Amino acid sequence: MPFRSNVLHHLTTRLARGAGAVLVLHVVGGALGFATHVLLARWLSVADYGTYALALGWTFVLARLAALGLPSALFQVLPQTPTPRRVLRTGRWLIGGVGLALAGLLSLLWTYDIAGPALGWAGLFLLPTALSLFETNRLRLADRPQWAYGPPQVLRPVLLGGGLVGGVWVLGASPTLLLVGLCAVAGLWGAWGLQRAAPAPPASSAAPSFAPRGLLAVALPLLIADGATLVLSKSDVLMLGGLRPEADVALYAVALRLAQVTTLVGVAVDAVGAPRLARCLHERRAALPGLVHRLVHLHFWPSLLVAGVLVAAGTSLLALFGPSYAAAHPLLLCLVGGYLANAATGSATVLLVASGHERLSMRISVAIAALNLVLNLVGIHLMGPLGAALATAVSLAARNVWVYRAVSRHVGVRPSIVAATRHALS
Fold this sequence. Notes:
Layout: H1 2-43, H2 46-67, H3 70-77, H4 84-111, H5 117-141, H6 145-171, H7 177-197, H8 212-243, H9 246-259, H10 264-283, H11 288-319, H12 329-343, H13 348-354, H14 358-383, H15 385-410, H16 417-425
Helix pairs in contact: 1-6, 1-10, 2-4, 2-5, 2-8, 2-9, 3-5, 3-8, 4-5, 5-6, 5-7, 6-7, 8-9, 8-14, 8-15, 9-11, 9-12, 10-11, 11-12, 11-16, 12-15, 13-14, 13-15, 14-15
């Protein structure tokens, strides 16, 4: 018992220090991104801002597709292979080839007016985004979270915002969608370049455990799960873009960006906690329940505090984007509720995948994605943006209940704020 307690204390101390550093990066990056989007919402027309929001939505969907599930597969593959450099090189070539093909196709469709400007810009954004997803997880597993999150969280908005301010100063007028797109491309490639320059894990001379085919065998189920998760996170914006005018997309995008502040602490905790969960599963199983419960506490209570601030001051915060955006307050309330339900189960999804149940995670994600599509279709038709917000909140809650039950059954740990609180009080 003393050994188990010491191990748990060591893991928790390192987790808190790492999460604190990543949280600082996310807060700074979030503040920079928030300020940039406030400027964009004020400088661009509502229609152009809606187009840009749609482009970002398509970017993350297509980038996950181009990544082939390889970023998530690294959590299972890299800890087991003695030749990480070969795995990383193979992953980069696969992502680069698929990303270039998709980008070229979308550029051609945009050139010949077959695809709209949102998909055209997404074609320019997707390759550096996909490569950055891969490098982020590589650096997380190498225990370098500052390198993993610093460039995309801080450098990207700095380059975007700095380019916009410089463009306004040179042009003497508000920026156009063209300038915004070019600055965004520069920010994405700059962030990836800095991540790529970060040192890799040490190589080994042993024979490889994973050939490219074996790497893809692990990655493809995760690609399906990632795709389903993206349906859950992006279908609201994309379906609004297909069924409602750009003004509704802009209203929803602003509420969504503000609601996502609730997730800042959880993202920081997962950034540091996911690799430790993976190692704890294989090396220190006795310490796992305590670590999981501490992760849940770190997820939930700060998120609850942030949610309270957003609910109380939401109208004033939305008005920063422009007077017309204050009407998005009901959307904000729904989305904050969904993200808070997500925080109540901590790192449950990470735990399910890291324990080797990626196919079960895939099935859950696909089922919830299908539910989300149906709810969005009905909700947007009946209530517009509010229907999309309700669909997202209900889907998030349903997914987390299902994942919690799966982890409880297959891993033997209860990752919920209720179980964690009972454990702390016992």
